[in-house]
Amino acid sequence: MTSLSLQAVIFDMDGVLIDSEPLWQQIELEVLSALGVPVTIEAIHQTTGLRIDQCVDYWYRRAPWPHYDNAKVSQTIVDKVAREISRSGQAMLGVHQTMAHCQALGLKIGLATSSSTPLIEAVLSKLALGDKFMSVQSAENLTYGKPHPEVYLNCAKALNVDPRYCLAIEDSFNGLIAARAANMQTVAIPAPEQQGDSKWVIAHHQAHSLLDLPAILANYA
Fold first, then answer.
1. Which of 79, 94, 95, 202 is most enclosed, with most CB atoms within 10 A?
2. How far apart are alpha carbons 5 and 167 in whole angstroms?
3. Where do the H-state alpha helices sit in the chain?
4. Interval 118-137: pLDDT, tens
């Protein structure tokens, strides 16, 4: 039993555990541009953290293309990202040290992601993290993905921890909204180019990397 008021740390996956957001953005840009969507990397930042079908729907509503098939486009993007993760995926700074620190404190560790099961499996395998999580939750089959809080609430329930005693770690604004709506404590680790954005003020804590987490956890002792 941990002496902290916190009982669990719940991680987002893309952009928190693995440096996959640039892969997502580049592949989304390629696939959507091929469909005639006038999109840029900067614009794609708006959909970071959304489930892939929600992302595809978002762009279709702004620039419709013929023969719309959300599932096909979504699967194309997911397949390309999964292959690239398996080939060249890299852990974010501090991932393994952070897992060890949370375990040493006796904290439960969960994963709450918008990504699909095949992507989760690819990431956990690539980073050798498969045995670290007591609960792995995906929003893929939920009615709503992030920014809806359900995936976070499901993770807390599976861990048997009141959401108020969970700390959620996010890199996206949509994910941060989800964690706040779930009534969790929150840490935002924005991409370097977004760290100066005032929107991150809604997080309880902002960090540059997971290496900052031990100091943040010390606040809850």
1. 95
2. 10
3. 21-34, 41-44, 52-62, 70-88, 95-104, 117-127, 150-159, 173-181, 213-218
4. 899 999 999 999 999 999 99
